[in-house]
Amino acid sequence: MDVTLPNTDIPQAALFPNARITGTDLSPIQPSLVPPKVNFEIHDCTETDWCRPLASLDLVHAAVLLGSLPSYSKLIRNARRYLKPGEGWLECHEMMPEICCDDDTVPPSWPFRAWQSYLEEGSMRMESPKPLRVADKLATWMREAGYVDIHERIDRIPMNSWPKHPFLKSIGRLWEVNWLEGLAAFSYKLFGPEGLGWTQNEIEVFLIDVRKCIKDRNVHAYQKMYVVYGRRPSEEEEKAMMKKPSKSAGFKTSSAKAKSKG
Ligand SMILES: C[S@@+](CC[C@H](N)C(=O)[O-])C[C@H]1O[C@@H](n2cnc3c(N)ncnc32)[C@H](O)[C@@H]1O
Q1: Is the pLDDT of residue 206 over 60?
Q2: Residue 142 host element (H or E)
Q3: Which residue, by CA, sits nearest to atom 19 of ligand 1?
Q4: 3-class secondary-structure state, position 254
Q5: If you measure from the C-alpha of residue 7 to the centroid of ligand 1, how many angstroms do you get, rounded to a whole number?
Q6: What are the φ/ψ torsions at residue 139 (nearest 5 degrees)?
Q7: Structure pTM?
Q8: May I ask the CATH class of domain 44-255?
């Protein structure tokens, strides 16, 4: 089994001990101690040439590339060329930046919501815009690129440990740490000279209020995480689709709901 994982981590190796796994990223962030059959390549996944045979991969897996790619749909189209016809799958995990809440506990001018809109504005002001809002379009892009058996699953990630449900509480606890540790790094490029043009001081002062929002358990905010996967059709399936283009165009969606009141 051949798997390529643009910018991914290594847990898949434990799940698929017989798979040859190649993790790719622009930067050399990978650990040096990795399971057997895992290797890493420095590679730009926006390149059309992935330096491997076409139609050779069982799985292409991409995660958290929002804000990294000028065109996610191009990645989806290109990945299809490298998947084995009939049996190769593409799986994408992406979150929507938007803050959601089901019980009106998010105040009208919540600084975290402002942060998220500034971030999107900053990303579109860059010389080469890289959209953050990709997750809810993945299934459509897969369909347009000619994938079949497309599934979309939407999970809710609480902002912090506000839910009563123990599993969601633990996810929220991790998500809070993710936000608090990453906030400055997520902000600087897009708020700085290349994006919104804010000074370091302006950014840091604003982030004080954003951090308070992230830690506030009285606000029942969450974000949506999309897991979308689809299969490259076989040649026979493709021929049949050409003759009868209709039902294969649809996709299945499911949503694992978090109860906002816990
Ligand atoms: C937010 S991290 C996600 C890392 C990992 N997939 C995860 O889920 O934890 C985004 C990663 O994408 C990488 N990246 C950004 N643009 C890329 C590109 N064009 N080709 C390959 N990797 C890229 C960055 O270097 C960074 O490591």
Answers
A1: yes
A2: helix 138-144
A3: 44
A4: strand
A5: 5
A6: -65, -40
A7: 0.89
A8: alpha beta
